[in-house]
Design brief:
Distance between the termini: 20 Å
Number of helices: 18
Number of strands: 15
Radius of gyration: 43 Å
Mean pLDDT: 83
Structural class: alpha/beta
Largest sheet: 6 strands, antiparallel
Low-confidence stretches: none
Shape: elongated
Helix content: 40-55%
Length: 570
């Protein structure tokens, strides 16, 4: 339920706050006072398109904030989207419009337009004159028909949708498999050719080429490496000169000599024990390094044929990468994928037969459920036709004939085998025509009101907006609309613009909108009327004069009659 809305610098609104209540909220005011701007603001904060043209002249930005008491479905949606505000129970939606664009927030969290629209569908239904035209959409009409059904019908509809989705998936799978035998053989031969070439390459590692390049660099520089190793060993452990005597200036001998000297010093000062340990560690490390260098040198493969084999393997891998790469990883993945494709193509005939059988079963199930859905809908349509004609009779359309026409589709679609068309005849002797052929917005408004009255129990949206639903109505019809709105207001929060005192008299919250102009600017002011102000407003709406006793008496009689009406509604 909408609790309040705050608007700043929108069109000719400078700054206003409006409090809304449960039941019927009526907005009244002179033509051009700005009532529709308030509903525009509500549409914008809930995701309608808005641009810089909505910003009040002389301002940098417009701002709208709506506070809403969320229902259970909305709370669940907010929790799923992680948009719940644990610090306050109400839902706060805001929209800021600047000259460069707009930003929307839900509970202070910035959201995109799609998220905001999803939320708005749970909160408010708009029935302005132009939005009532959605009633003419065939898919909307089918949704309305399904919407009045009980749980068994909804379960049937859900089962059909699941069966239809399974059927389409199988149909797509079969289409991808249904290729000619020649095409299958061609694809199989090509897959085998590629697989054999990749398989013969024995690709076991995605990094084999990198390892071989490193190995090639080693084998190409064997002589230089061996010389460096030998020189390193000589530096560490010494070597023999031409006379056969070893060199004395090697690292190991010097470390050994140093260790002996430090050891003798420790006998004089134990504080050098740490230095002794360091020298011992260095000596052990140098000895280990010398041994590892010898082992590494002994293990070097200096055979020229080894280098030739590495070069040959690198050439094979380069060819594979050119054809199937650019990396070995891609070639390996392709090889494995080709193995699966070959298996699939070799077994295609058997798999195709099994899939065709599954598809036939899925089609039969889908058609069976669709046929049952049509039967249920046909029965629902008869009931809805009768209910709507009763409601239209109350709304001054006694001669109206409302019919729901069915057109059977050639094959099931996402909603079944049915295309429905709401038709109506408002004149005796005239055959029913589609709602899209109705020129009168007033007639469409009454049909929508009739539908909303019927669907009130199924409708999960808490707030319904009507923009001048009583336009062009008079006499008995106005009293009927008043009663319908009063009844609907027991299950929904209703926001309605009206120029008629009969409709306004049944309001639970009467909001008056007026436009004030000065030499410098035009502003809209909004006020929630108390009982005395409300009587004056109704009197002025009835006669144009708020202070004439006759007008006030008439206004009071309207309020009393509205009170009696509401007391009879359960």
């Amino acid at each position: 339920m909408l609790k309040s809305i705050h608007i700043e610098n929108l069109v000719i609104i400078k700054s206003i706050d409006i409090e809304w209540t449960e039941g019927l909220n009526v907005l009244t005011g002179e033509t051009g006072a700005g009532k529709s701007i308030l509903f525009d603001a509500l549409s914008i904060v809930l995701g309608a398109k808005a641009n810089a043209s909505y910003i009040r002249h002389g301002s940098e930005k417009a701002y709208i904030e709506a506070t809403i008491q969320p229902g259970e479905a909305t709370k669940k949606w907010l929790a799923e989207q992680e948009l719940t505000d644990s610090e306050q129970p109400d839902l706060v939606i805001s929209r800021e419009i600047t000259k460069s664009g707009s930003r929307a927030r839900i509970n202070g969290i910035l959201v995109n337009h799609a998220v905001l629209k999803d939320l708005s569908n749970l909160l408010i239904t708009f029935h302005a004159q132009h939005e009532i035209r959605t009633l003419m959409n065939n898919s909307t009409q089918l949704g309305l028909l399904d919407g009045i059904a009980e749980k068994k019908h909804q379960d049937l509809l859900n089962n059909f949708k699941a069966a239809y989705q399974n059927f389409k998936e199988l149909e797509n799978s079969l289409a991808s498999m249904q290729i000619s035998e020649d095409e299958r053989e061609r694809r199989l031969d090509f897959a085998r050719f590629q697989f054999n070439e990749l398989d013969e390459a024995s690709l076991d590692s995605a990094t084999e080429d990198e390892e071989l390049i490193e190995n090639r660099n080693l084998l190409s520089n064997v002589k230089e490496i061996e010389e460096s190793i030998q020189e390193s060993i000589d530096n560490l452990s010494g070597s023999f000169d031409d006379s056969g005597r070893g060199q004395s200036s090697c690292v190991l001998e010097k470390l050994q000599s140093t260790l002996s000297l430090v050891d003798s010093l420790v006998s004089f000062d134990s504080g050098l024990e740490g230095v002794k340990e360091l020298v011992q560690t260095s000596l052990a490390t140098a000895e280990e390094a010398c041994q590892q260098l010898r082992r590494y040198g002994n293990g070097i493969d200096a055979d020229p044929e080894t280098l030739d084999r590495v070069e040959e393997r690198l050439a094979v891998l380069a060819s594979i990468k050119r054809k199937y790469g650019p990396e070995l990883k891609a070639a390996i993945e392709l090889r494995d994928g080709l193995a699966r494709e070959i298996e699939h193509l070799e077994n295609a005939t058997e798999e195709l037969g099994a899939l065709e059988k599954k598809l036939a079963e899925a089609k039969e199930k889908t058609l069976t459920l669709a046929t049952e859905l049509t039967r249920k809908r046909t029965s629902l349509a008869k009931s809805l036709e009768a209910s709507i004609m009763l409601e239209l009779k109350d709304l001054g359309m006694e001669k109206a004939v409302f019919k729901i026409e069915f057109e059977k589709l050639d094959s099931p679609g996402p909603t079944g085998l049915d295309r429905v068309e709401f038709t109506i005849s408002t004149n005796v002797g005239t055959p029913p025509k589609p709602l899209s052929k109705i020129a009168s917005g007033g007639e469409l408004s009454r049909i929508m009101l009739a539908l909303k009255t019927i669907f009130a129990r199924q409708d999960q949206v808490a707030t319904v907006v009507f923009d001048e639903i009583d336009a062009g109505m008079s006499g008995k019809t106005l009293h009927a609309i008043r009663e319908k709105l009063a009844r609907l207001a027991r299950s929904h929060q209703i926001l309605s613009i009206t120029h008629n005192p009969i409709i306004a008299s049944v309001a639970d919250n009467h909001i008056q909108v007026c436009k004030e102009q000065s030499k410098k600017e035009t502003m809209i002011r909004v006020s929630n009327l108390d009982e005395s102000e409300r009587l004056n407003s109704l009197a002025q709406m009835a006669s144009g004069e708020a202070d004439q006793q006759e007008s006030l008496n008439f206004a009071r009689s309207l309020v009393d009659a509205a009170g009696q009406l509401k007391s009879t509604i359960k």
